[in-house]
């Protein structure tokens, strides 16, 4: 199981585990899939926290040599701010420097490389480090591309749910 794998590796290694937000740490309502592409005030602030995952994050965060972070995406700057506020409320143990939210509004991207952005971000953060890097996501397109990275151990959210 992933938990044991990370705990065993942490004995003598630095581990960084990033989690996607939507559908992993916060509820993703599939009936409202297009709302995230609109500028809806406070869209993220009322998302239901997924406590099973947050408790797992907290346990990892309290483990020596393990750093926990968020790697998420959004369309607009306002959404980024909402996500940060949501995390401060629902995942208060996360350190601000470990919250990484890619805002599409601020970068040049296209549909071809959209799902590669998280991989590129983690590779840029950790290419010259001694960390063993994990990422937990629910999007199979992100996971498929991230599997091609020699630096990142990517897992689907189902790998941590008992």
Summarize the structure.
The chain has 162 residues and is α/β, with parallel strands linked by helices. The chain is built from 5 helices and 5 strands.
Secondary-structure blueprint:
Blueprint: H1 2-9, E1 14-19, H2 51-61, E2 66-74, H3 77-90, E3 99-103, H4 117-126, E4 131-137, H5 140-146, E5 152-156
Parallel strand pairs: 1-2, 1-4, 2-3, 4-5
Tell me the domain tally. 1
Poorly predicted parts:
none
Structural class: alpha/beta
SSE topology string: HEHEHEHEHE
| CATH C-level | Alpha Beta
Q: The CATH topology is what?
A: Rossmann fold
Extended strand count: 5
Question: Please, could you describe this protein's structure?
Answer:
There is one protein chain. With 162 residues, the protein is an alpha/beta fold. The protein has one domain: Rossmann fold (3-Layer(aba) Sandwich), CATH 3.40.50.1000. The chain has helices at 2-9, 51-61, 77-90, 117-126, 140-146, and strands spanning 14-19, 66-74, 99-103, 131-137, 152-156. The longest helix is centred in the middle third of the chain and has 14 residues, at 77-90. It is globular, with a radius of gyration of 15 Å. It starts with a helix and ends in a 6-residue tail after the last strand. 30% of the residues are buried. The mean pLDDT is 91.
Keywords:
single chain; 162 residues; alpha/beta; Rossmann fold; 5 helices; 5 strands; 20% strand; globular
């Amino acid at each position: 199981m992933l938990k044991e794998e990370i705990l065993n590796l942490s004995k003598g290694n630095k581990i960084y585990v990033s989690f996607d937000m939507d559908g992993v740490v916060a509820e993703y309502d599939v009936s409202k899939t297009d709302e995230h592409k609109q500028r809806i005030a406070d869209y993220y602030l009322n998302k239901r926290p997924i406590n099973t995952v947050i408790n797992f994050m907290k346990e990892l965060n309290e483990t020596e040599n393990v750093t926990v972070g968020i790697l998420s995406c959004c369309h607009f700057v306002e959404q980024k701010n909402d996500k940060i506020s949501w995390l401060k409320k629902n995942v208060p143990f996360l350190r601000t420097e470990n919250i990484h939210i890619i805002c599409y509004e601020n970068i040049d991207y296209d549909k071809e490389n959209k799902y590669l952005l998280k991989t590129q971000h983690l590779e840029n953060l950790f290419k010259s480090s001694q960390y063993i890097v994990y990422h937990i996501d629910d999007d199979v397109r992100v996971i498929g591309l991230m599997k091609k990275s020699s630096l990142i151990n990517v897992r689907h959210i189902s790998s941590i749910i008992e």
